[in-house]
């Protein structure tokens, strides 16, 4: 069946493209904070992120199993998802991913992927084909809870870091030393990103191979799948770096080394713990949650609710919006080979148009800002917070640090 | 079926590990500072986020750190102790990270 193999090849290629855009979209998650505090040179940071994403992808396959084995009931007693539907889901995910990126809306590549797949499955097979329990337990709930966990952890960690290193006013506190720590903590985030995000694409490719009958139902990703996904996400991460490097100078949110270190450690801990349990959470959301939490851990901070609401809206919208796109693409794909070709043509046109548009507007403020920076703006920190009055301390001479 | 205990595990594990790492590293920094070895790490590249540090200001910081170190009330032995304790904190922090990585890679303990 040559036709059948062709669609599988197409799906794999598309999945790798998605993986690339995922890395491209997410370089900032790991590297925005160390670059913002000057802990690492931007070019070095981007290179390190790419390498560690590559390594991280090889470390664990729990999340890939969640994607390939849970969300859509395949195999015995379930329904057969066809490669055409996966193809449609991927088109929906990629288009939504690029649209949100260009509009400067915070979104999550992972949710775009799941939304696209779910939408395509519902149109193609019916609402009974989606395992809503798994979707709720392993996708939606982690998406809501993980940023909160990360934020809470970051708040505690930031308080700890500041409390432990606090010294009397005017005495040097050595907090610049957190810059060294940031090199390691941000590397850990990049590694964690590889263990969670590269896995999602592996899961999709494995799902396709299972659907095509090349692999047993319930089996994990094979080595070449892992290697290809690792490579795609690493290249995406590296090429995504130019965006960050360009953002420099336009003014990132102010982040202090101690705060950045606490935020990165919390992000890495949350993602790694969740990856270990097979939760496919959004790394962007976790990193944003951490940055907000660590901002709140600093003295004199208040939340800008408008900004927080905008970010939350972007998060909530991603799943249904990409589901609609996936459903639309699936509707076309069900027309047969003509539909697939139509899907591809439309997808290519949209991607090319968006790309052209992005090149034209590449210095505009919004496209260059990344999600993490948006998250940083949620918290407003007074420039010179008042120290709490403690006896013997309140009347000391104030020295601006 | 929603496995609520898994969320509890994730939050507890993240909180514990992040708090541990941050505390160890901060304690290490604090001890170094106490020992009179105040780490002054200049940012690699000035971005919009960092207050720009002029060479004059940087020199002032160095001077202040030196002055603070000279005015350190600790006896030399105590200073050395604080320094070594600080290094020990960094080493422990590193070990904790490596152990965490070991825990999440199934290939290492199967």
TrEMBL record, chain A:
UniProt KW keywords: Membrane, Phosphate transport, Transmembrane, Transmembrane helix, Transport
Principal cellular location given in the protein's record: membrane
A molecular function GO annotation: phosphate transmembrane transporter activity
Membrane spanning stretches: 6-24, 44-65, 85-105, 112-130, 136-157, 201-217, 223-245, 308-328, 334-355
Subcellular location: Membrane
Pfam family, one: PHO4
Membrane topology: Multi-pass membrane protein
One cellular component (GO) term of this entry: membrane
BP GO terms, sorted: phosphate ion transmembrane transport
Record family assignment: Belongs to the inorganic phosphate transporter (PiT) (TC 2.A.20) family.
PANTHER family: LOW-AFFINITY INORGANIC PHOSPHATE TRANSPORTER-RELATED, PHOSPHATE TRANSPORTER
Protein's UniProt name: Phosphate transporter
Protein's organism: Cryobacterium flavum
Automatic annotation (TrEMBL), chain B:
Tagged with keyword Membrane: yes
The keyword Transmembrane appears for this protein: yes
Keywords: Membrane, Transmembrane, Transmembrane helix
Annotated transmembrane regions: 6-27, 81-105
Listed name of the protein: Peptidase
Protein species of origin: Cryobacterium flavum
Biological classification of the source: Bacteria, Bacillati, Actinomycetota, Actinomycetes, Micrococcales
